[in-house]
Specification:
It is a single chain. By secondary structure, the chain is α+β, with helices and mostly antiparallel strands. 32% of the residues lie in helices and 26% in strands. The relative contact order is 0.04.
């Protein structure tokens, strides 16, 4: 159990406190603090607060039970003692740097030291300093640095990494993976995948589990190869030197770094895994920024010390074993036999990854232990993993032979056959010449599996038949069936391949129009092409039945077909045969039918309205079923008669655009009449519906008054010429759409059908508010009444025709 799980440390409570009221008050106060941090703290505070709040029930249980509380308090004291030992080491390192510098530790330096530890008071720090015996250094020229920065990981990744590591109270990814920093990328990524699988299998995932899963993903990315690992190691080196910067500041308080100080700092950096050259580069660069002076000598004591590759402790040059952990400082390479330092990551002679030694040896030990227990399959798996890191390593090969001698592999089965199914492939094979065995079916793309773990395991079965519904369509696949006894696989397998799973096309659509059929489909993965077969009256019964129209990838256009005739089609997918370089494998095919005909125009839109919205006009309507596009056209004098009318302006509007804006907006609409016509479109046939019409005055109310005027004079007779006089409100001109002048004897007409159509006027323009319509010389009936109507009733929406009194409408 660590600091995060100890109740006293989580509550910042003295282990000696036993008063119940005090304990409950502390829990309540910390609960409020954590709740505040969870809602308004930074990312790290929110994460810690979330974890602490999830532990509240456990905290109350531990602190409410006398025995549990006593055990937790004792553990808290031990954790504090460990922390004090760690901080004492930290102080000793700082004091060693100051002793090497021979300088005086002033007030600012003491304050800096006191702020870096929790368990030591200022008086205790001063007492330790007084016992160290510090002397004064000498002057030297200011430091300069011309070294270039090595590549490091991305800052965003670094922030995410620190956040997750802090949550788990870990220093770096190597501590998380529990592997040596000299380990190979392969070993590191294998371990990251192991942790991810372990955590993702948990049914209940808390913040710890989430952090471990995220760190597993980061490790797989940041340690993916040697180049990526080098960037991460450079980042760690900079962090290690940043941690030493406090000691560096202490040593350089007087503006001078002696050679003894530099060597001591380099030693400390090497113990943290930093190369001596990189440590010196950092020290010189920092000194240059601070304008400190450096004492430069040729002798470099820190470089001559030997470093242990297991614990990073420094040992005298002539030593054979590490003074810290006792491991040998040199070992023969398992591949070439050349003796190499334990601190190197790879053998410089043959490239063997020596840094994987701890993991490989652990796998060897695990394999031997499992073999002694009779867990043969697990033992072989561990030994095979060890040999995966160090191929040909004799101790692992010998241990593997021992396992196989104790439990020899069973004989393989025979005659593996693969046949196609509607939804996969069926595998069947002859049983092995031994009872009690099971079978592992392994699938692999691109080549035959040679081991039981070489590929993807489809299943382990006791029967001699298996249906593989997960085989990839269109990809050549090999299968191997291994016999198993107590988890140990046969040395050889029965193999089949390359095998190819095929599939028919999907989502077939047939659209018939005037003299044409358009086919479309979704091709299966790996399909080379699709044959289109046609037959009149019914679909082709099979490939070759009917006429081959051609091949295409996902669509075909059949032109020149007769309207009213039924046409059947069969779509056959072709795949390249992996066993025949120039051959194809075809599918059964999918059928469909279509009957070409002259398409009906779409239904018009309904409920067309217009309203003023700011400086524009917003049009809305109800879309007919199946329509996804319209054409909106408008003019200021009459309704456009087609979607492509030469007069006026227009725009195509899709249903998606209409839904996004909840209508269609005519921006900057003038305050004058707008004659709108909206045509629904059938995009497949390019046919348009009848227009939905609307007249909008863009907010201006226009009224047109009219009366009948007879030309009176001394010589005028009853059939003398007359006219209809029109006037309108508002300034400027006004164009009226087509008008109908209706005459009726005995009363005023109430509709265009209530009387006799006298004349039809296609257009009337009122200039300066006035216009006139000449009447024919001869008008049927005796002194009929005349009335004007719009030819299109929709025009009355924004322009009102106001007749004069009844007598002023009579001839």
């Amino acid at each position: 159990m660590g600091r995060r799980d100890n109740a006293h440390l989580l509550l910042d409570l003295d282990p000696g406190v036993a008063d119940e009221a005090t304990i409950q008050a502390r829990i309540a106060d910390k609960q409020k603090e954590w709740a505040r941090q969870r809602s308004s703290g930074n990312a790290a505070q929110r994460r810690r607060a979330e974890y602490a709040l999830s532990r509240l029930d456990d905290l109350r249980r531990v602190m409410g039970d006398t025995e549990l509380r006593r055990a937790d308090a004792e553990e808290a004291r031990e954790l504090r003692r460990e922390q004090r030992r760690d901080e004492a080491h930290h102080l000793d390192v700082a004091i060693g740097v100051l002793r090497a510098s021979g300088g005086h530790c002033d007030e600012a330096q003491v304050e800096r030291l006191a702020g870096s530890v929790e368990t030591f008071s200022r008086q205790e720090i001063e007492a330790r300093l007084r016992k160290s015996g510090i002397s004064v250094g000498e002057d030297a020229p200011p430091a300069t640095s011309t070294r270039t920065m090595k590549p490091v990981i991305d800052p965003v990744q670094a922030r995410d990494l620190v956040s997750e590591l802090d949550h788990l109270e870990l220093d770096d990814l190597y501590a998380f993976l529990e592997l040596n920093p000299r380990s190979s990328p392969q070993a590191l990524c294998d371990r990251a995948r192991e942790i991810y699988r372990q955590e993702s299998s948990r049914s209940r995932k808390d913040s710890i589990c989430s952090a471990r899963m995220k760190l597993s993903g980061l490790a797989s990315t940041l340690l993916a190869d040697d180049e990526a690992k080098e960037r991460y190691d450079n980042y760690l080196a900079i962090r290690a030197m940043e941690d030493l910067k406090e000691h560096l500041e202490l040593a350089g308080a007087d503006g001078f770094l002696s050679q003894e100080v530099i060597e001591e700092l380099v030693k400390q950096a090497r113990r943290r895994g930093v190369e001596a050259e990189d440590a010196r580069a950092f020290i010189e660069g920092h000194a240059a920024k601070r304008k400190w002076r450096l004492q430069r000598t040729v002798a470099r004591e820190a470089d001559s010390l030997r470093q242990c590759g297991f614990c990073f402790e420094l040992t005298a040059a002539g030593a054979s074993h590490c003074a810290g952990c006792g491991e040998p400082l040199e070992e023969p390479c398992p591949r070439c036999g050349q003796v190499q330092p334990s601190s190197v990551a790879a053998c410089p002679d043959c490239g063997c990854r020596l840094g994987d030694a701890p993991r490989v040896r652990a796998l060897l030990s695990e394999g031997k232990t499992l073999g002694r227990r009779g867990e043969w399959a697990a033992a072989l798996e561990a030994l095979d993993r060890a040999l995966g890191y160090w191929p040909g390593w004799k101790p692992a090969e010998a241990a593997r032979r021992k396992v196989l001698e104790d439990n020899p592999p069973p004989p393989p089965g025979g005659d593996l056959r693969v046949s196609p199914l509607a939804a996969g492939l069926r595998l069947s094979w002859e049983p092995a010449a031994e009872d009690g065995v099971t079978y592992r079916v392994v699938r692999k793309a691109g080549g035959a599996p040679h081991r039981a773990d070489d590929g993807e395991t489809v299943a382990e079965v006791a029967a001699t038949q298996l249906d593989d519904a997960e085989a990839a369509v269109g990809e050549p696949t090999y299968y191997a069936v291994f016999s198993l006894r107590h988890g140990v696989a046969s040395a050889t397998a029965v193999i089949a391949g390359p095998c190819l799973r095929t599939a028919d096309v999907g989502e077939v659509r047939a659209r018939a129009t005037d003299g044409e059929v358009r086919l479309s489909w979704r091709p299966p993965h790996g399909c080379r092409t699709v044959e289109v077969w046609r037959r009149t009256g019914r679909p082709p019964a099979r490939r070759g039945d009917g006429t081959l129209m051609g091949t295409a990838s996902d669509a075909w256009r059949d032109r020149g077909v007769s309207n009213g005739a039924l046409y059947g089609y069969r779509l056959v997918a072709l795949f390249r045969d992996p066993s025949a370089p120039f051959g194809d494998r075809e599918t059964t095919g999918v059928t469909t039918t279509a009957t070409p005909s002259v398409p009906e125009p779409p239904q018009p839109v309904r409920g067309l309205t217009a309203r003023r919205s700011g400086r524009g006009l917003m049009l809305r309507w109800q879309w007919p079923d199946g329509c996804d596009e319209v054409v909106v056209r408008y003019s200021h004098d009459d309704f456009p008669d087609s979607p492509a009318a030469a007069s006026g302006a227009g725009s195509r509007v899709t249903r998606r655009e209409y839904d996004r804006e909840a209508g269609w907006m005519l921006q900057g609409a003038e305050r004058r009449p707008h004659f709108f016509a909206v045509f629904a479109l059938d995009t497949a046939s390019s046919l348009a519906s009848l227009p939905a019409r609307l007249v909008s005055g863009a907010g201006a109310k226009r009224e047109v008054r009219y009366r009948v005027e007879r030309r009176r004079g001394l010589f005028c007779r009853g059939g003398a010429p007359a006219r209809v006089e029109l006037t309108c409100n508002g300034d400027g001109s006004l164009d009226l759409p087509a008008l109908l002048l209706v005459a009726k004897s005995g009363g005023v007409p109430v509709s265009p059908q209530d009387g006799h159509l006298l004349i039809e006027v296609t257009r009337v323009r009122l200039e300066e508010g006035h216009a006139s319509i000449p009447l024919p010389a001869s008008v049927p009936g005796r002194r009929p009444y005349l009335k004007l109507f719009f030819k299109d009733a929709a025009a009355a929406g924004q322009i009102r025709l106001l007749p004069a009194g009844q007598e002023d409408l009579r001839l």
